Amino acid sequence: MNPLDWLAIPPLAHPGLWLALGALVTAIATATGVLGRRAASAPGILFAALAVFAASRAPSGSVDFRVARFDLVWYHADDLSVLFALVFSIVTLLGLLYGAHRLGPGETVAALLYAASAVATVLAGDWITFFVFWEAMAITSVALIWQGGLPESRRAGMRYLLVHAAGGAALFVGIALHASASGGVLDLGRLAATGPPFWFLLVGVGLNAAIPPLHGWLTDAYPEASTTGAVFCSALTTKTAVYALLRVFPGAEILVSLGVAMALYGVVFAVIENDFRRLLGYHIISQVGFMVAGVGIGTELALNGAAAHAYSHILYKALLFMGAGALIEATGRRRLTDLGGVFRSMPVAAILYLVGALSISGAPLFNGFISKSMTLSAAGEAHFYFAELFLSLAAVGTFLSVGLKLPWFAFFGKDRGIAVRPLPVNLLAAMAITAGLCLLYGVRPDLLYRMLPFAASYDPFTAGHLASNVQLLVGAAVLFALGFRRLAPTPTRNLDADWIYRGRPGRIARPLVTGARALGPVAQAVRSGALTAANRAIVRLAAPGALATGAVRRDPFSFRTPIGRTVLLAAMVVGWLLLASRL
Amino acid sequence: MIEALAGLLVALPLAGAALMPMVAVLRRRGTRWLAFGLHLLTFAAAAAVFARTAATGEAIAHRMGGWPGPFGIELRLDGLSALIALLVTGLSCFVASAPVDASRGATRRASPVREGLVRGALSMLVAGLVGIAATRDVFNLFVFLEISSLAVYTLVASGGGRATVAAFRYLIAGTAAGSLYLLGVGFLYGLTGTLNMDDLAARLPGVEADAALTAAVALIAAGLAIKAALFPLHGWLPDAYVFAPAPAAGFISAVMAKVSAYALLRLLGETLRGIPAGAMALETMVWLGTLGVLVGGGMALAQRDAPRMLAWSSVSAMGAILLAVGIGSPLALAGALFHVVAHALAKGCLFLGVGGLAETLGAGDRRALRGLGRRAPWTAAALTLAAFSMIGLPPTAGFSSKLLLLRASLAEGGPAGVAAFVALLASSGLAALYFLRVLEGIWFRPRPEGRPAQRLPRALAAPVLSLAVLVLLGGVFSAVVEREFVSGAVEAVAGATADER
């Protein structure tokens, strides 16, 4: 038997296993000094390549593992889950290659574990396994954000963790309600019933999909991750949520309006944003909106469109974040107002970035086109005309901000004479491969289409699709040429949903918080005082003379329950049982 | 042949209790290994009995003195009793392998008298606890309850100093518990004229449910609830666990209260089921257990002293076990028994490790544990694993038991079930807070200036590590634990209750 065929046996076919093993090997090799800090990502790249290979040959079927009374299905492969597992593995490989020159052991391990959790989440076949890895993903992604290393990344990571803990709690309650409503059936599958389980699960999953107003964590934390960290973040968390929506909520009509709102919302904020990684973060929200709307439309074509768009999106968004990271590495700046005219100094990176920008804008022959137009057509065919119209509008805005505004003000525009550091080869190689994939799928869409979960045939290259797309792009370009002075970025911070803790309410809330903090010791004193007094009273009652000594005052919670009280309480329990069962 | 083993299970440690002081005075050197060998032999007998009950699904009975049926005292080990006996004898081996004063420095050896008394008391405790698990006679159960109590008072008091006071407080509470239980048994005997559990179960339906019967149930429930540390009758527990010397504390904290919980399950869940007062007692137990889960967790969070924190978390765990016993569905019983096993392993590991460290350092303050990860990574890793099990994180045994308990309380439904579900979830959150706080100190903080370096004696480190490995195995192979160990025990109870209906 060919050794590579072993990868088709389920335990070894799980790409998450290889990613986790990569993390383990990296940790051991760097901790024991076998591997220097500079080569920390080498084993990770090797194992990620194995993961890609395993995912590309993963056999469908499921394997379970019995824990207590639950059959935990840790490997459930069908077309949908394998599609996501594959693209997650690919982007992990590319991300590690992209950051190979600067990834330390901590960041490599965090990234690998994060990717492993995401892969394990999409390959989970029941709600419990899904939840465990979903939470693992939240924790490991925070670990990755913390590797950004700045005080702001620590704070943003902490906010991110709190938000995701709340989302996890909603999800858990949803799972519990769902389990009790369905009589203990925990299989992941389409949720037929509405009511409380539906809403709790939707909030839990929707938070990770960054559906407004639950999206604040994304644009808050992703720009504070390291340049490499942002590549992983952009690819994994939101797309895992899209997978969950595809699995659980296909055809839930509320998702159409939510998705359309997301697509527009993200674009509007992106157009006025100055920090270019936050700008890209808003575009994650906008693009995920296309997918959410596709899930909501729920026809086979729309679901295929959502899955295909997730696949394309992961590739081009990774490329865009790689380009943004390259800009930061080369110039040390992260705001559009600080940049300009660096095209000459970094032409390769700029051109590769433009490939990503054209992909996200849906230009024909790039991979965004073949998936985005699928969702738009599905909206039209299913008679969601408003959705089609607004999503087309969002597409215009996307091209305006990512395809025109960002490159214009960063690479072209006014030359500020910025000193540019040369970029390492591995970084450019990773960008080139990603750009190559974007182009490959753009020219040969059948390569992607044949992996899709449903058998809906679709041809993107009809005259109608091409014409409408080109018209949209040209329209956006005209708009930009007419109004680009108005679109010039301003060095301000735009308040979004984070105004709850940053803006005016924050200013009102702050004295309250301070006051509450000041009240803390008072409350503590009152409480321990009352406790002590109660304690003494009972001691006096139950065991005269055995009054507790000074120990009670030093540490109010180290008190001993007077043993007489135990006996008294036992008598009370007997009394209660006598009374209650006689009544 | 195998029936004799059931009697041997009690007789062997009881003989050891008599033998130990003599051997210790006459022959110093061999005492530790003789004691260890004796406990190992008892464990082997328990394992043989367990294997037989698990294989055949039938109980192994031994009639003492050859007296038949309801007249003589019957020792009978079904799946449930055998599981408890296995747990008790197994854990005693870990503790018996350590020198009596393992945590008090290598220079100090226990005197022969002390050595003999402590080892004898441990043997006697095992005899008492196995006896409680095995006996089918309610008065005999009282006798074994007293045997185990006397032994445990001796063990706690052997810590000296404040431990003496703790032991005395425990003695008062325990005596009150024993008296209540005995009163209840007296009432039952007056009503039915029998002490045999099966006979009682058969005759009770014919007895008019009057005040005497209600009083009997209430007294028995309250007496055993004290011994099982059901909130709010847990007052003796923190001090007794904290001040007992480290090797003994590991054993006491692991099994002492749980064997009483077993007695509650046997009597209320089986023998006295179907009596209105019994149902009332079980319902009360669900609510008090729920409260205990919360109060124990909250008090553990408020402690500065690490062993005291562990003791309060035991109050919380006993609440979880007893609330599941109170719910009483097969799923809840599976959860309760799995939790008994998981918690015994993890808490034994933690008390041996943390208690031993606290004693060698002379300070229980949790800050004294800072920097342990760098100095003793294996010990620290073992404690981390046990703490994970206490919180209920995978892949430890505690995860599976918490999962079962949560599912059982949800399946129960109603206000009590929902309250229990919420409390169990909250207790996991609280446990995460107070354990992670300690673990953060162990792994990420340097040893504070001026504090002596922590060192766990090797004789304690070995049981700590092996218990941690068991915690991990119990989690990874939880399906095996569930199938081979727990389900037979649940069937033993559920079968008895099904017959009655």
Question: How would you summarize the topology of this molecule?
Answer:
The complex is a heterodimer of chains A (583) and B (501).
Chain A: H1 10-13, H2 15-31, H3 42-56, E1 61-67, E2 70-77, H4 79-99, H5 105-122, H6 127-146, H7 151-181, H8 196-208, H9 216-221, H10 227-248, H11 254-271, H12 276-297, H13 300-331, H14 347-361, H15 367-381, H16 385-411, H17 425-443, H18 446-449, H19 463-487, H20 499-502, H21 504-542, H22 551-554, H23 563-582
Antiparallel strand pairs in A: 1-2
Helix pairs in contact in A: 2-3, 2-5, 3-4, 4-5, 4-10, 4-13, 4-17, 5-6, 5-10, 6-7, 6-10, 7-8, 8-10, 10-12, 10-13, 11-12, 11-16, 12-13, 12-15, 12-16, 13-14, 13-15, 13-17, 14-16, 14-17, 15-16, 15-17, 16-19
Chain B: H1 2-26, H2 31-56, E1 60-63, E2 74-77, H3 79-96, H4 112-134, H5 138-157, H6 162-192, H7 197-203, H8 211-227, H9 237-243, H10 246-271, H11 276-302, H12 306-327, H13 330-361, H14 372-375, H15 377-391, H16 397-412, H17 414-444, H18 458-476, H19 478-500
Antiparallel strand pairs in B: 1-2
Can you describe this structure in just a few lines?
Chain A is mainly α and 583 residues long. Chain A has helices spanning 10-13, 15-31, 42-56, 79-99, 105-122, 127-146, 151-181, 196-208, 216-221, 227-248, 254-271, 276-297, 300-331, 347-361, 367-381, 385-411, 425-443, 446-449, 463-487, 499-502, 504-542, 551-554, 563-582; strands at residues 61-67, 70-77. Chain A has 23 helices and two strands.
Question: What are the segments of chain A in which pLDDT stays under 50 over at least 5 consecutive residues?
Answer: 541-554
> What integer value in Å does the Rg of chain A equal?
28 Å
The helix/strand series of chain B, from N terminus to C terminus, equals HHEEHHHHHHHHHHHHHHHHH
> What integer is the average pLDDT of chain A?
82
Q: Main beta sheet of chain B: strand number and arrangement?
A: 2 strands, antiparallel
Shape of chain B: globular
How large, in whole angstroms, is the Cα Rg of chain B?
21 Å
Report the span from N to C terminus of chain A: 76 Å
Q: Tally the helices of chain B.
A: 19
Q: Roughly how much helix do the residues of chain B carry, as a percent range?
A: over 70%
Report the β-strand fraction of chain B as a percent range.
Answer: under 5%
User: How many domain regions of chain B?
Assistant: 1
Structural class of chain B: mainly alpha
Number of strands of chain B: 2
Order of helices and strands of chain A: HHHEEHHHHHHHHHHHHHHHHHHHH
The amount of helix of chain A comes to over 70%
Overall outline of chain A? globular
Strand order of the largest sheet of chain B: 1-2
